[in-house]
Amino acid sequence: MAANYNNTAWFYDSLARLVFGSTLKSSQKHLLPLVPKNARILIVGGGTGQTLEDLANLQYEGLDITFVEISANMTALAQKRNAGNNRVTFIVDAIEQVQLAANFDVIITGFLFDNYPDADLPLTFDHINSALKPGGLWLNTDFQLTGKWWQPLLLKSMYTFFKMFSPIPVSKLPDVSRVFALHGYNAIASATFYGDFILTRAYKKLLKN
């Protein structure tokens, strides 16, 4: 189960801007133009809901969005976002506890999997994967280490800081790319930000997965 950032919701976005500027926002919206018209979308770990506004700026209506976020305080902020005329269903729970339909066109996970240890990631991934229809699109954005000396230091500082407010069961990044590869996903687009520390990537699910 992922960490709950309920206690940091009130300053989370401000802190993100202080450390990363507009990079976190830019990275998560970069591949949203790939979302097809009138798509059924599952957002997991949606935080304060910036992606809802970014989607509405691209498609003001026609989207059917299920927004899952474990933090009630984060969700309350997300509900104040302008999602246009798109339909949004908010669910406050850990994704592992949510009964998911199996016909979503798109899944969006932003800075979600960095909260899972390698041992727990496969079970959560399988659960989310079951909700994406064959041929569907998965947009994932998260941190990565590319060998630059400052990246592990910044990552450790981030984990240490947030552990002061809530239990976070990890101290290092899980191998997310490996899990996507094991499930046969094809990467169709990607981009890096903030000195390659942030990777956003679009995956396509095999027709038989």
TrEMBL record:
InterPro entries, alphabetized: Methyltransf_25, SAM-dependent_MTases_sf
Keyword Methyltransferase: yes
GO biological process assignments: methylation
SUPFAM superfamilies found in the cross-reference section: S-adenosyl-L-methionine-dependent methyltransferases
CDD domains assigned: AdoMet_MTases (cd02440)
Domain Methyltransferase: 41-136
This protein's UniProt keywords: Methyltransferase, Transferase
Pfam families: Methyltransf_25 (PF13649)
The protein's name: Class I SAM-dependent methyltransferase
One GO MF term: methyltransferase activity
